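#random but structural
TW: two for the price of one
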Amino acid sequence: MRIVMMKKLNLCIAVFFGFLLTFNILFAQSDRKSGRLDLRERVFDFGIVPREAKVVHDFVLKNVGHDTLRILDIKAGCACTTAPVGKRVLEVNDSTIMPVTFSTGRASGKTQKGVNITTDMEPRGLFPLSIKAYVESPTMKTPDLTAEPRSIKYTPPDTEAEGVAEVELVNNSDKDLTVKIVDYTDDLGQPKLKEGRIKPGKKSELEFEFIPMSNMSTVNGSVTLEVYAGEEMLMRYSIPIIRQRPVDYSSK
């Protein structure tokens, strides 16, 4: 009797491990055949942003799997956020940009918005992303760093024109501040700091060099800064960029 029970137990164990091995083989084969989405980041923090403005961050989506990846759906959490994507079909090692634009409107204080990406990736194809910001209000304390004016605006004479616009960065604190550029909309051009260190009560300049664009519409972007006192990061601060409709198309 005991021998029979042992044989039955050994048979059950053998069946269990056989099932487990088969499942692992099938899962591995499925994984090898499917596309796989890789995201450089899942969360981006704009820091302090103004009201009634638009700020933009580019999320990079890459297929690191072994087959074509299809982006089936992209849903933003609210009407204040848009997230178009350059390509919806990604071949192996292919990538695309998804610029997420946050329209601050009349919001104030801390806010967080989500974007959900759905792909045909197996076994799990849903990828949530989020953006964070602190929207300015009339009653908030003056930040350690501010920009004058609050946004960078440029109206090119035509679509082929290059140009430069600038803002002043003001140190409102009693500490030496170090300013670093951590993100910007490179489709519009490139930012440049005149001085990365600003004494208390002093100013520096941030220039944005615009590149020619074939786009005849108004285009929005932003520059995001990190502000440090010594090794301590005090804040993030985003400056909206508005490249307005070219002059030679304004009346057409």
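TW: number two ↓
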Amino acid sequence: MPDLSDIDHPDVNVMLSIVMLYWSLHDRLSCEKPDLSKQERLTLIRLSQPRRMGDLARAMQALPSTMTALTDGLEAKGLVTRRRDPKDRRAWLLELTETGEETRAELGEMLKLALREETGLDAADLQQFSDLLLKIRSHIMAKGLPKGLPF
């Protein structure tokens, strides 16, 4: 385990801890679902209900062509389907198949377990951590999404 005792600046500790948690969770989910890319996992997690592909691309800060390629892969794996949006026939809705719903639920359970194990926090601490992160995310989103997010 690397010695971090020389880092005496709290802001640096926060940043390094966030980065470490991100990569720890990413590595863990990559090992548990190796057949899905990080972008595919994020897409499934974001699909709690049918969404327009364009809206999903914007939410993920992805080009429409990237979203199309992701959708092609998820569709080939039987996890999503596309259908025309009845409110706007020019737009496509992306929705989970039954297998996609099951996979999304599995990802949620894996993430819950991984968060507990990787952070060492109990349910109450995780709730407090979640509340703080939601506050941070809302603040960042109010200013506009940062350029170059890795997803």
